Amino acid sequence: MGFDLAGLKAAVAAQGRVARVVIAEVSGSAPREVGCAMLVWEEAGRLRQSGTIGGGALELMAVEQALSAPGLTRHPLGPGLGQCCGGAVVLWTEVFDAAGVAALEGQEIVARGSGERPLAVQRLIDRARGQGRLPEPQLVQGWMVEPLARPARQLWIWGAGHVGRAMVQVMAPLPDLAITWVDTAPERFPDEVPPGVTVLPAADPARAVPHAPQEAEHLILTYSHEIDLALCHALLRHGFAFAGLIGSDTKWARFRSRLRTLGHADAQISRISCPIGQKTYGRHPQAIAIGVAGQLLGQKKGDGTAWIHSSASGA
């Protein structure tokens, strides 16, 4: 979680004047955690938003007031808002234009508030820098401190067919995730691609594998078994944190045999998960995407969730 400067910059470039609402503090039960943010702007006489601070009456009120009432506000999540969470949240609302965004450039930790910067804020920043880590988003003596957003995970999605498009739609809104989307030609991709997704046309996708970080995660979903096999071969040589291949048990048995012939040991080959997805969800592209996304999030949280070797068969 962090300050998404790139997203804010893009919104201001498109809309001119944009409010950013972030959860600065939480006490008790609340729908989302500190650092969650949304952007609000006016377009054609209507308020629009990107992101969420948890929905419900709190979010509706925050959207309505974002452009006209910036500042620090506290909101009990009780009968007054028609919510029963029982806790309370503090919201920090700022309105940005191009100059305001430009003033944030070059900052690794964004700290802002009224008056002179408190000593506690400066100590927090100095301690984080001295330890080589970024601080968690937090409110300190009336100042909001947030690190710039840095994607914690790199996800490479190979294939822009039905399942690839569904995967991008499901995964793109998630924070802390950078998606690189690869297929064989520009026309393979939809006209509109979600913000933050890097499109990479490559006539020979396997030749793009060396450009992926070795800690990246991969989903192989192309239209061609030969491309799929070439990607598996290239990834086994290059290294990866996770690789999932869409396909049936029969397809994977054939691939294992061919990968052995290409010189890969069984222990290496077994690092590739195939099939992927939740069998009980069905084979609709969105169902496959939801199953795979849930398993990715479970893996991220370290809760022991494994990639389930069942279903999600493909061509």
UniProtKB/TrEMBL annotation:
Protein name in UniProt? Molybdenum cofactor sulfurylase
Output the InterPro entries linked to this UniProt entry. MoCofactor_Util/Proc, NAD(P)-bd_dom_sf, Xanthine_DH_XdhC, XdhC_CoxI, XdhC_Rossmann_dom
Could you list the residue ranges forming a coiled coil in this record? none
Its organism's taxonomic lineage begins at: Bacteria, Pseudomonadati, Pseudomonadota, Alphaproteobacteria, Rhodobacterales
Domain XdhC- CoxI, by residue range, is 12-68
Cite the XdhC Rossmann domain residue spans from the record: 155-296
* Top-level taxon of the source organism: Bacteria
One Pfam family in the UniProt entry:
XdhC_CoxI
